[in-house]
Specification:
alpha+beta; rod-shaped; five-stranded antiparallel beta sheet
Length: 200
């Protein structure tokens, strides 16, 4: 600080006129001011803060791809669910009794609905028994056959008259039963033979 000899006001270093009275500041105090802040070798090299902290920020900033990976939510890093397995067998239902005896219904990989066409919802089951069930013993959504790889199952989905395999007990709705070639499925008054062949 440089003290004005006329009014006693302490001015910042480097001023020639007093901020208070406007008088000329004497250079007598200048040497003291200069010795107050001695030059050091370290001061010749600007610190990182003197440049706005850019080097420090650059050192901490991750590369864009790494930063994006670090910020990605866990769900985005989780592996995608595996697609449904391709069918390893070729299956079909053949009417053995009731309706159009001998009529075949090819089955697709995934879900195959057994039932009757529903005019209210426009639902068309893969195994549509509208022409084979004049007494309406088969529910519009009666049972579900699923092909998953080499595994074939049948499941009752809450039908009125039930689903039976090999003339055993009525299937519990929602509990799939395994099927093999030659099995018999009964829905309403329609009897099916199950045909399953491996895909070569």
């Amino acid at each position: 600080m440089i003290k004005c000899v006329e009014c006693g006001y302490e001015n910042m270093d480097g001023l020639e006129l007093c901020d208070s009275c406007g008088g000329k500041l004497t250079a007598a105090t200048a040497p003291a001011a200069e010795t107050a802040v001695p030059a050091s070798p370290a001061s010749e090299t600007p610190a990182p803060e003197a440049t706005g902290g850019a080097p420090a920020q650059a050192a901490l900033a991750p590369d864009a791809p790494t930063g994006e990976l670090a910020k990605a939510p866990e769900a985005a890093l989780a592996p995608a669910p595996a697609p449904p397995a391709a069918a390893m067998v070729k299956a079909k239902l053949v009417i053995a009794r009731g309706g159009r005896q001998g009529h075949e219904f090819p089955l697709e990989a995934g879900n195959n609905l057994i039932g009757r066409w529903d005019p209210e919802t426009g639902s068309f089951p893969e195994v549509d028994l509208e022409q084979d069930d004049p007494e309406a013993k088969i529910s519009r959504k009666h049972a579900l056959i699923r092909i998953d790889g080499a595994k074939v199952t049948v499941e009752d989905i809450g039908s009125l008259n039930g689903t039976y395999v090999n003339r055993g007990q009525r299937l519990t709705p929602g509990a799939p039963a395994d099927l093999k070639a030659g099995d018999e499925i009964i829905v309403g008054k329609t009897f099916f033979k199950v045909s399953i062949d491996p895909i070569s």
